[in-house]
Every structure is written in C-alpha cells, then in structure tokens.
Amino acid sequence: MLQGLALTGSFLLLWQALDRVEWVEKLGVKAFSAATEKKIGDFLIDTLVPPGDEVNDEEIKHPTDSLARKICRENHIDSASLKIHIVKKDDINAFALPDRHLVIYTGLIKFCDSPEELCGVMAHEMAHIELEHVVQKLAKEVGLSVLISAAGGGGTEIMKEAAKTLSSSAFDRKLEKAADFKAVDYLLKARINPEPFSDFLYKMADKNPAMANYTWLSTHPDSNERAEYILERVKASKKPDSYIVLFSAAQWEKIKGAL
Q: pLDDT tens-digit profile of 192-249?
C-alpha cells in the first residue's frame, strides 16, 4: 500500500512538473519559419474569407483600422504587419490566424454598443497573435510537422481542418486568461477604458449558446467568469488619469449603420 501511495504521489508530482513546461516552444515552434507561417496564413484566409466577402468600404475600414493602430502604437506592436479583414457575416465572431491575420465579422461590430467593446475584442485577439497562441494551438491540435508538410503542398484537407480549428474552437483556459489579461494591459496603456470589454462578455453570457450566430460565445466559454476577472485585473492595475473618447455615440452608430 505504501509503495502504491508513493508511486501515485510521484506520478502526480511529475504530472504537475510536466504541465508547467511550455511544450510547444520546447518542440520547436520558435523554428516555425516565417515563409511557412505565411503560406498557412494565406491558405486559411482564402478558405475562410471567400472573394467578395471582405468589406472594402473606407467608411468602415478606416475607423476600425484607426482603433487597432491606436492599440498598436501605445503598446509598441508592429501595426504594419497586422492584417485586418472585416468580413460580411452576421456571426458575432473574431479570430486570429497565422501570419498576423485578424478577422472581424460585421456581426460582431454591430453587436458592440461602443468602440471600447470592439477594442476589447480586438486587443484580446491581438494578444493571441503577440503571445504566439495561434501557432501553439495549431501545433497542439493539428500537429507541427503535419502543418509544415501541408504548407508544402497537397495538404488541402488538413489546412481546411486547421481553418475550422481556429475559427470555431476555443483556446484552452490558460491561454484565454493570458490573452484577456494582456488585452487589459494593452487597453490601459492606450488609455482606452477596458471595462466595456467586460460588459461585452456579460452580454455574450446572456445570449443563448444554442443560437448559431453567437460564435464568439462558443469559442470563448465562461464569459461571466472572464468578465469578473477582467474587472479585477482593471482594479489591480495602474490606470491612466483619464480615458480617451474614441468616437461619440452618434459617430459609432453611423459606423454601424454603414454596415
């Protein structure tokens, strides 16, 4: 019995130690070449954003880009390499893809009651990009060697599965929380009020998960819990003397009306 308890204890200690290892990084994600990531990103964009579905109206693109650039500028993020795609789709969704692609559905913009809510979602997805969560997720769920092989050609079905993985399944809780906290930090440094991001999550939690178009809810579970720890993060952080006004209520409604 004592030997059994000792073995169990050793197993649990080993499991805890192994769980702390950043396996994806140790296994070589850092060696994931820029050329390979670009091939994967281009394929996924072509798969998920059919020709004609991307919004090119400057009345919508310009204000969205300006919000992203504001976050990037104040947080020393390379905005020039960030590729924002606004897609005509009613689903309330946004997601990041390899090679720094950020996809935002028009349904999500319409759902946001303020530009600060949209900034919260964008900052969260930008955090996934900056923290290399996108590649980590693909490497974990699809396989690094499989992805590299598929990017070389002949892996169409594998790449379609990768597209589905990134657009419709959640990151694990650890990565989601890291992205949420980083998003709060981004917003505070940019003097953008992060509390509307928690309002957005509360709204999502109130929606019926069975409703197909609330995709961001199904891919980002536990919205109430996340809203609460985001507020706690804000309280514990050093806040700016004041928050900037991004757009007036009338301007925001005009932008949404253009959709």
A: 999 999 999 988 877 655 444 444 444 555 778 889 999 999 999 999 999 999 999 9
**Domain, as residue range, for 235:** 24-253
Distances, alpha carbon 36 to alpha carbons 137, 141, 153, 164, in Å: 16, 17, 11, 19
Pairing outcome for strands 83-87 and 94-97: unpaired
Question: For the chain, what is the domain count?
Answer: 1
CA-CA distances (angstroms) from residue 255 to 51, 57, 160, 204, 207? 23, 11, 33, 21, 24
CA pair distance 190, 177, nearest whole angstrom: 20
* pLDDT tens sequence across 156-173: 676 667 766 666 566 788
Whether 36 is covered by a domain: the verdict is yes
User: Residue 238: inside a domain, yes or no?
Assistant: yes
* Residues 240, 187 contacting (CB under 8 angstroms): no
Angle in degrees, 0-180, between the axes of helices 144-151 and 34-48, rounded to the nearest 10 = 80
| Domain contains 5 | no
Per-residue DSSP letter, 219:
H
Does a structural domain hold residue 9?
no
